[in-house]
UniProtKB/TrEMBL annotation:
Residues 1-80 are annotated as: Disordered. Residues 1-17, 53-63 have a biased composition (Polar residues). Residues 114-213 form the Lysine-specific metallo-endopeptidase domain. It comes from Caballeronia choica. It comes from the Bacteria. This is Lysine-specific metallo-endopeptidase domain-containing protein. Pfam families: Aspzincin_M35.
Length: 213
């Protein structure tokens, strides 16, 4: 299951390139996926701490009382075609099921070969850390507000990236930036779902995982 994997990158941006499976965090010094990134608006520069995202953000991303609120766990999409929004919505829902299934399996059965392939050696500390991150992901994906934004390559974000997040942008919590390369993997089973889950694991209030260089 390609839900989680990590790789450490020299920069603050966390990303998925779609070139391989992604993992949730190993031990406390977790590492994951492909090298992350966040971009200007494409997000603001990666120099602010990432803060917990409450689920009371409105459809326009603000916390106002006049605009209707999105149901908890329902993503907001900005800059996509209806077809792309549908693809992202399905991928997000599938990612939630994958994370929940992985968590339940970890709670009810000992780590197997797939566990070690995805999360490294199942030491007690490692298993505890993976369970912590999966638990946070499971709760957050069910109740928190996530925003997906269309993004383009830049000097900081290569076109090879499929998606990235800026874990130091406190003004835009839980935003995931989707690159054009993401759509090259849309038809592949579990690939887009894996990228989404991988990016979510980077948020500091969830897992704080990093990409390996």
């Amino acid at each position: 299951m390609n839900v989680n994997q990590q790789l450490r990158s020299p920069q603050q941006l966390q990303h998925s390139s779609g070139d391989g499976p992604r993992e949730v965090p190993p031990p406390v010094q977790q590492e994951a996926g492909s090298g992350p990134r966040q971009n200007p608006q494409q997000p603001a520069p990666p120099n602010q701490p990432r803060i917990y995202s409450p689920s009371n953000r409105t459809a326009n991303g603000s916390a106002g009382n006049d605009a209707p609120e999105e149901p908890a766990g329902t993503p907001i999409f900005e800059g996509f075609t209806p077809q792309q929004e549908n693809t992202l919505s399905k991928a997000f829902s599938h990612a939630k099921r994958m994370v929940h299934s992985a968590l339940e399996k970890l709670k009810t059965s000992p780590p197997d070969v797939n566990y070690e392939m995805n999360f490294r050696e199942p030491t007690p500390e490692n298993v505890k850390e993976v369970e912590r991150v999966l638990t946070n992901m499971d709760k957050s994906m069910a109740h928190d507000q996530y925003t997906f934004k269309a993004a383009e390559p830049s000097s900081e974000v290569p076109e090879s990236f499929g998606a990235y997040v800026n874990t130091h942008d406190s003004d835009h919590p839980h935003e995931i930036y989707v690159m054009p390369n993401f759509w090259n993997h849309a038809p592949e089973t579990n690939r887009t779902e894996g990228m989404i889950a991988h990016e979510i694991s980077h948020f500091k209030d969830i897992g704080g995982t990093e990409d390996l260089a």
